[in-house]
Amino acid sequence: xxxxxxPDGSAEYEHGALGDAEYAAFMxxxxxxxxxxxxxxxxxxxxxxxxxxxLAVVGRPNVGKSTLVNRIIGRREAVVEDKPGVTRDRVTxxxxxxxxxxxxxxxxxxxxxxxxxxxxxxxxxxxxIDAADxxxxxxxxxxxxxxxxxxxxxxxxxxxxxxxxxxNKVDGPSGEAxxxxxxxxxxxxxxxxxxxxxxxxxxxxxAVLEALPEAPEQSFGTAVGGPRRIALIGRPNVGKSSLLNxxxxxxxxxxxELAGTTRxxxxxxxxxxxxTWKFVDTAGIRKRVHLQQGADYYASLRTAAAVEKAEVAVIxxxxxxxxxxxDQRIVTMAVEAGRAVVLAFNKWDxxxxxxRYYLEREIDTELGQVAWAPRVxxxxxxxxxxxxxxxxxxxxxxxxxxRVPTGRLNAFLGELVAAHPHPVRGGKQPRILFGTQAGTKPxxxxxxxxxxxxxxYRRFIERRLRxxxxxEGTPIHISVRVREKRxxxxx
Length: 491
Hints:
The protein is built from 14 helices and 17 strands. It is an alpha/beta fold. The longest helix has 16 residues, at 116-131.
């Protein structure tokens, strides 16, 4: 894809267009440091694209989905055991085939007419299909199509997503006749595969690439006149619906003392300060999703989808209670989704001096990873400090969209490395040679280095980037491309 970068901070242009003088100078610097143009372009492209296309791997229990996922990603990550039901949660991995990168979602086995935890697993698979760009439907070729397989086919047809039919457990030419029976499912050509031994997976992945779209450009907020999207998220009963009603100035959504009143995300267009915002009131996110059942389970999944579609996540935390592991998990979800973040501590009017003292200590220790997020202390019940919410959202959006000119970034990196070089490890001292910002929303940087850069030093760089350029209210993604040994390419 062609992500837009601005080495000089002015007009946007494709990073592959070498006509711009400063970008040409940047590429010349890369060449001097031992990086060829293709390597630099690939690193920027990998860091600068929008969300990767998603491939869901679905099927009934014990047909070899996790084994196939391990084969696709090229390593043993998904738990494999010769009994049904080992995989419960959806698990996402990054994969690459023929130079194309995509995400793979391993799901639990889908069954119809099941109760309890099995029903949740089935629902998780249904959600994975809904959220995916394409689907690999895995069927046991030795067993042939079953009633459950037929039910999955109906589900897939309803979803309308591109489907690649994988006839698994075909270990040799004799098994290909078994695979041919799967034409009866009406999903097109069955691809005979042995996930265990790797037989046929290359041809199947070629078909997957044809079904998957290219990685899209980042497009948040680009619709002219479109309202910015704000998701209100948090544990049940922290006051999300009350906050939305207070911001709107009227009773837009149901508020009840009973936790879990909100089930579906509720979109509300609200005008504040002459600007129209789209607020989404979501269901409270409870403990681990795979332990939930019924309506609560679906509510959590819809909330996660609302966060993915939002630009800013306003995370409500009940200031009258201790910050919980679940609060931290919700913060992590928003950060990993790449959303701008605002922390809103609700029920502030109920706090005494002692609770405020201990809350500050908790924030320092439990939420230190998002010390960069704007914070507002509000009361959805009384309306206290509600006027501070929109400025905090605007600050977070500004940080989320900040772009640093390449020349200024490299001047900063040069000074930083000179004053605080990377620690010596194994007799070597890796250096950051140069860098560029590959994208925004959230800001994504690519640093080119002479050797491996430790995680602690990367965190140091992020901290100094924030001190120098702001980035308030947004996560920052930093990737490092290490220079190959000069003789490596000549071999």
